Amino acid sequence: MPSFDRLSLISIHSACGRAVACSRPTGGRRLRLAAVVCGMMPLAIAMAAAACADERIPTDAAPRWWKGNIHTHTFWSDGNDFPEMVAEWYRTHDYNFLALSDHNVLAQGIRWMPEKRVLERGGPDVIEKYLGRFGPAWVERKGEGEAAEIRLKPFDEFRSLVEERGQFLMIPAEEISDAVDGKPVHINASNIAEAIRPVGGQTVSEAIQNNLRAVQEQAEKAGRSILAHLNHPNFGYAVTPADLAHATLERHFEVFNGHPSVNQLGSGEKPSIEQLWDIANTIRLAELQAPPLFGVATDDSHDYHSGPGSRQSSRPGRGWVMVRASHLTPEKIIQALQVGDFYASSGVTLRDVQFDTASRTLQIDIEPDGTATYSTRFLGSLPGENGGPPSVGVELAVVEGLSASYTLSGNELYVRAVISSSAPPVDPVWEGQQQQAWTQPIWQQPSAGE
Does the reported pTM lie above 0.90? Predict the structure, then answer.
């Protein structure tokens, strides 16, 4: 049996481990060289692979940030690409997890789609792209001419093609798409075991609550953590601040959605999404003694074939969540989201977000990006004076630079931060949009026995 000194093993680990065991395919000279070296040293390959596996899944794993999107669509509903192709886009754009959330369906069972309809929705080269990436041995087709069909692969079948241990995770999900008097009420459920049918309600708030109970019932029955979040409340201006406030089972909603038709900025007397967040949280804390909402960011992607520049398309890569967890597993990711250990982003990356309970200080450290400058606004609501109405979503402080902190006085109902970059997003949704990040609200929680 051959033996290797420490320097040799380091070199082999570098060449074989990074190119073969530890990284996504990179092509080029390094892979060819690694193939030669690794082909000569099979024992070293195994040792390098084991070392890489240990690096990916350390025994003393500490919490770290994982990037993910929990609102996307495919051919299983109204997206315009195959689920494997959608997952591949996120995998190759440095995401760590993805939930495909098609409308009222979980990608399960056998489904064939007419190729004519595939081409109409995805464009003339959508099947060619699919074949080019995964090959004829994977792509299943039958029939000819007008009768030609192509098979949509279910979640449990395609996930093994795209998942990477410690790098990229798929989470089963659904967009529960309900309506009340023509108003859309859409709730994403991530990490579900089976599809959940919308259950309706007499009012928007009641429909939200009823659907959340259906999610809770499945979570309890299946013995798994499921995250429910309300999608695009300003889509059709369906959900008012009062609706969102009084649906107290809801703890998460989309503070940013990259679809161009969700009225992110509001209109006229209609509040923007951020204003809606502040109003709903103020009602919850000042009137209902209910915990505030956490804000997630998603891209709600449907279109995977048009490039940046067309603001009418809902493309991938516009909004995401950064989740702090020790391991890249569905349970760890969902549990961190449930307790609010994450931030939402449309481009800004944070090195750290911490709230020191002893000093009551919210500390934010920003990851620099080129020459961009950053401004952090601390926002919150204050109780009304002499029985008057609260001051909602007021600016408490503004801090410039890569580090910002705010110490709560004790008078605030809650405090949150929005960090804005001077740089525009890579693929902006509206003119003048800035890259941003949103932290979760900090609030005075009742002491035990109160």
Answer: no
